[in-house]
Amino acid sequence: MELAASVSHGHGSSSFLHGSAKPKLNSASALFTGAPLSLSPSSTGRQARCPKKLVVHAKRISGLEEAMRIRRERELQTTTKFRKRPPLRRGRVSPRLPVPDHIPKPPYVSSTSLPDLSPEYQIHDSESIAKMRAACELAARVLDAAGKLVRPSVTTNEIDKAVHQMIIEAGAYPSPLGYGGFPKSVCTSVNECMCHGIPDSRQLQDGDIINIDVTVYLNGYHGDTSKTFLCGNVSDGLKRLVKVTEECLEKGIAVCKDGASFKKIGKRISEHAEKYGFGVVERFVGHGVGKVFHSEPIIYHNRNENPGCMVEGQTFTIEPILTMGSIECITWPDNWTTLTADGNPAAQFEHTILITRTGAEILTIC
Q1: 330-354 mean pLDDT
Q2: Is 49 domain-assigned?
Q3: What is the pLDDT of the chain when averaged over all its residues?
Q4: Inside any domain, residue 44
Q5: Helix (H) or strand (E) holding 349
Q6: Which of 8-12, 300-304, 323-327 is least confident?
Q7: What is the span of the domain harbouring residue 306?
Q8: Which among 21, 38, 117, 195 counts the fewest CB atoms within 10 Å?
C-alpha cells in the first residue's frame, strides 16, 4: 500500500510500520503492524525468473566519485528557498467504503484493535513468491493510476475512492481499510504530513506534494508501496526533496542481498540524505510483509547498530521519510495523521523487495 508502515517499536511491539526506533508511541499512528498471524518460514526454493521485474545487485560506489557528482549537481542548482504554505487542516472525512462479501479479508478486519507486530520473518518458497509478485504488481498498478489523478482541485477523498474501486475490481482487499480502525483504503499524506494521512474533502493545491501509500491483500498476501507525487507547479526545493528521497530508497535497496546486514540500509540512506541537508525520520520504519501485513524484520532508515542479516527468499519494505527541517513529529487526535513538528515538508517512497542470492528484486513495479 502505503499505509506507511509506521511502527512504534521497541522490544517486540510495533506499528503500521514506518517505525519507530524508540518505544514511545501511544497513538495508533505509529502502529501500523501486521495482523497476528502465525507464519512458519518455508524453505526458500529457487524463484522463477521474471523479465518484467527489476533485480538490483549490491555494489560498492566510489566515495570520491559520488562526492564529485554531488558537488557538480549543487553547483548547477539554483538556491531557491522553500516558501511555507498555510498549515495543513483536516477536511471532512466521509464514511468508509464497502467491500463485497466475496472478497477475502485479512484477519484484523474483524477487530478495531491494532494488531501486534508478528515476530516471524517471512521467507518464501517458489509458490508464495509467485503470490507475492502478483499482489505487489497490483499494488504498483494501483499506485501508478492514483498518481495520474494528482492535480490541483482534486480531493484526497476522490483518490481514495478511485483506489478502493480499482482494488476491489481486481478481487483484492485494500489492506489499510479497518487496520486498527483506519477508516480509508489508502493513505494520502500532503506536504508536512509524514505519513498515515486520512483522505478527506481537502482539495490539492498548486505546488503541493502528496505521498500516496497503497497496500493490497490479494490471494492471502499483502503488496505494499508508496510514492510522493508533485501537484502542479512545485518549487525547486520541494522537487529536490522528492528526488533525493527516491534516490535514498534506491540506495537502500542497492545494498540488499542474501547475508547483508540490515544496518547497511540505514547507513546508506543517511549518508545520501545528509549530503543535501535533509533529515531522516527515525520514528517510522520498514517491515516484513507477506501473509502478514507487518512483521519482523524492522527496517531502520537512520544509522543504527541493530543486529541481523538478510536471507534469500525474504520479503520486506524499505520506506524512508525525509524532511526539510526537524525529524520530530506530532500526531492529530485521529491517532493516525502524523505531521512534522515544525511544519516543514516531508517526502516518502516505498518498495516491497525480495532478497535474492546476489541482490534484491523490487516486487512493487508494473
Answers
A1: 97
A2: no
A3: 85
A4: no
A5: none
A6: 8-12
A7: 126-362
A8: 38
Cell of 317: 519494505
At a CB cut-off of 8 Å and minimum separation 6, what does 36 contact? 107, 108, 115, 116, 118, 292
Give all strands (DSSP E) within the chain, no chain letters.
54-57, 173-174, 187-190, 193-195, 209-218, 221-230, 279-280, 286-288, 295-299, 315-318, 321-323, 329-331, 338-340, 346-348, 351-355, 359-362
- Where do we find the cell 518464501? 124
Q: How many domains does the chain have?
A: 1
Residues belonging to the chain: 366
Binding residues for a divalent metal cation: 213, 224, 287, 319, 350
CA distance 21 to 258: 24
Cell numbers at residue 218, please? 490479494
In a domain, 335, yes or no: yes
User: Side chain identity at 325, as an amino acid letter?
Assistant: G
Q: What are the residues facing 225 on neighbouring strands?
A: 214
How much of the chain exceeds pLDDT 70, in percent? 77
Locate 120 and state its grid cell. 516471524
CB–CB of 214/163 below 8 Å? yes
- Amino acid identity, residue 361? E
CATH number at residue 167: 3.90.230.10
What grid cell was written down for 79? 538556491
Task: Name the binding residues for substrate.
Answer: 196, 294
pTM score:
0.82
CA pair distance 98, 252, nearest whole angstrom: 37
Q: SS3 string of 37-49? A: CCCCCCCCCCCCC
Q: How confident is the model over 167-215, as pLDDT tens digits? A: 999 999 999 999 999 999 999 999 999 999 999 999 999 999 999 999 9
Over residues 282-296, the pLDDT tens digits come to 999 999 999 999 999
> Does 71 fall in a domain?
no
Secondary structure element (H or E) that encloses residue 283, with its range: none
Q: With bands split at pLDDT 50, 70 and 90, how would you rate the model's confidence at 25?
A: very low
Residue 246, helix vs strand vs coil? helix
d(CA 352, CA 294): 12
112's enclosing H/E stretch is none
* Chain centre to alpha carbon of residue 206: 24
